[in-house]
TrEMBL record:
GO terms for biological process: base-excision repair; mismatch repair. It comes from Constantimarinum furrinae. Its cofactor is [4Fe-4S] cluster. This is Adenine DNA glycosylase. It comes from the Bacteria. It catalyses: Hydrolyzes free adenine bases from 7,8-dihydro-8-oxoguanine:adenine mismatched double-stranded DNA, leaving an apurinic site. Keywords: 4Fe-4S, DNA damage, DNA repair, Glycosidase, Hydrolase, Iron, Iron-sulfur, Metal-binding. Residues 40-191 form the HhH-GPD domain.
Length: 353
C-alpha cells in the first residue's frame, strides 16, 4: 500500500508541475545528461551554468565523446566556471565509464557514489531521476526550505545537522516519484525560498512555515562560521617580446587552477612596489634568462579575485624584452589555452594581446 504523503510533499509537487522551468536536461532519463547538468550546477546558479551545459552537450553529445577528449579541451570549455577540480573529475569519470563500464553508468545510488566527483547529492539526483530510486537529495536549496518550513536551527554544516536533514529529506520524499519530488524541492529553493528576500508573502507554505510565522526567515538555515579568508598577493609577469611571444606556465601542483595556464608568477606576503619587485630574488633569478628592456605596472589598483577561502590581490607587470627562447608562446595563440578567469579577464582587456 502506497505511503500517505505529507501535505508538504503534495503541495510542493503540485507547485512544481505547474511552475517548473523548461530546462534542456528536464524530461530526460539518460544519466549522462543528468550527471553532466548536476556536476556543472554544483556551486553554480542555473543562469550561469546553462550556457556551459549547452557547450558541453554540443561538443560532447555522448559520454564516449567526452571520454575521448583531451583534458585541455575539457578545461578550455570549462573556463570561467571555477572549481576546476569538477572538470578534471568529470573527464576522469567519463573515461572510466567508457573504458571500464562499457559506457554505462552504474544503475543505482551505491554504484553511482563510487564514481569520482560524485557525492551523496549527485548520486541521489541521478538515481532518483533516471532509475526512480527513492533516495532524497540534500543541497543548499533543500537545507533552506526544510530549515525554514520546519523551523530547524541545527547547523547545516555540522555532523548532526547533516544527518538530521538527510533523514527529514528522506521522510518527505515521494517514493512513487522521487525524481519529480527532488527536482521540485531544488526548484522551489532556487526560485522562491532564496537566501535573501524570499517571496514569503505569496509562498505556498506561508501558513505552516515556522520561520515565516516566527519572523526568523533571515536567521535560517544556521551555518557554523568558516575559517578566516586567506589573502595572497600575486604578481604576474606578462612577458612581451619584439617577435610577439610571451610565456605561459602550467600549474601542475595541487591547489587552485591545477593544469590551467598562467603568466610567470611571483607570490608575496604583501603588496609590492616596482622597486621591491625588481629586487625580489625570484625576479632577479627570472631576469637572468632575458635581456629585459623595461618593466611597468599595468594596473595601479590591484585586482582582487575572490575565491571561497582566499582573496588573490593581483598586479600585472608588463615586462618587455627583445627575444624569448624557443619555448615562448606566440601571442596570437594565447587565447587557445585554458586559463583562470583572472587571467582571461586580463587577456580580454589588454590591447597588446
Amino acid at each position: 500500500m502506497p505511503k500517505k504523503l505529507p501535505l508538504f510533499t503534495k503541495k510542493l509537487i503540485i507547485w512544481y508541475l505547474h511552475n517548473k522551468r523548461d530546462l534542456p536536461w528536464r524530461g530526460k532519463n539518460d544519466p549522462y545528461f543528468i550527471w553532466l547538468s548536476e556536476i556543472i550546477l554544483q556551486q553554480t546558479r542555473v543562469a550561469q551554468g546553462l550556457p556551459y551545459y549547452l557547450k558541453f552537450t554540443k561538443a560532447f553529445p555522448t559520454i564516449k565523446d567526452l571520454a575521448m577528449a583531451t583534458e585541455a579541451e575539457v578545461l578550455k570549455l570549462w573556463q570561467g566556471l571555477g572549481y576546476y577540480s569538477r572538470a578534471r573529475n568529470l573527464h576522469h569519470t567519463a573515461k572510466y565509464i567508457h573504458s571500464e563500464l562499457n559506457g554505462r553508468f552504474p544503475p543505482d545510488f551505491k554504484g553511482l557514489l563510487k564514481l569520482k566527483g560524485v557525492g551523496d547529492y549527485t548520486a541521489s539526483a541521478i538515481a532518483s531521476i533516471c532509475y526512480n530510486e527513492p533516495t532524497a537529495v540534500v543541497d543548499g536549496n533543500v537545507y533552506r526550505v526544510l530549515s525554514r518550513v520546519l523551523g530547524i536551527d541545527l547547523p547545516i554544516n555540522s555532523s548532526s545537522g547533516i544527518r538530521v536533514f538527510k533523514e527529514l529529506a528522506q521522510l518527505y520524499l515521494d517514493p512513487e516519484q522521487p525524481g519529480t519530488y527532488n527536482q521540485a524541492i531544488m526548484e522551489f529553493g532556487a526560485r522562491y525560498c532564496v537566501p535573501k528576500n524570499p517571496e514569503c508573502g505569496t509562498c505556498i507554505f506561508k501558513e505552516e512555515c515556522v520561520a515565516f510565522n516566527t519572523n526568523s526567515v533571515s536567521e535560517l538555515p544556521v551555518k557554523l562560521k568558516k575559517a578566516a579568508v586567506r589573502k595572497r598577493h600575486f604578481n604576474y609577469l606578462v612577458i612581451l617580446s619584439e617577435d610577439d611571444k610571451t610565456i605561459l606556465n602550467q600549474r601542475t601542483k595541487k591547489g587552485i587552477w591545477q593544469q590551467l595556464y598562467e603568466f610567470p608568477l611571483i607570490e608575496t606576503s604583501e603588496e609590492l612596489a616596482i622597486e621591491s619587485l625588481l629586487s625580489h630574488r625570484d625576479f632577479q633569478s627570472f631576469s637572468k634568462k632575458f635581456e629585459i628592456a623595461s618593466v611597468t605596472l599595468y594596473n595601479e589598483q590591484p585586482v582582487v579575485h575572490k575565491l571561497s577561502h582566499q582573496h588573490l590581490i593581483t598586479k600585472f607587470w608588463i615586462v618587455e624584452t627583445n627575444t624569448i627562447a624557443c619555448d615562448g608562446t606566440p601571442i596570437s595563440s594565447i587565447k587557445e589555452y585554458a586559463v583562470p578567469v583572472l587571467i582571461e579577464n586580463f587577456i580580454s582587456d589588454f590591447p597588446a594581446i
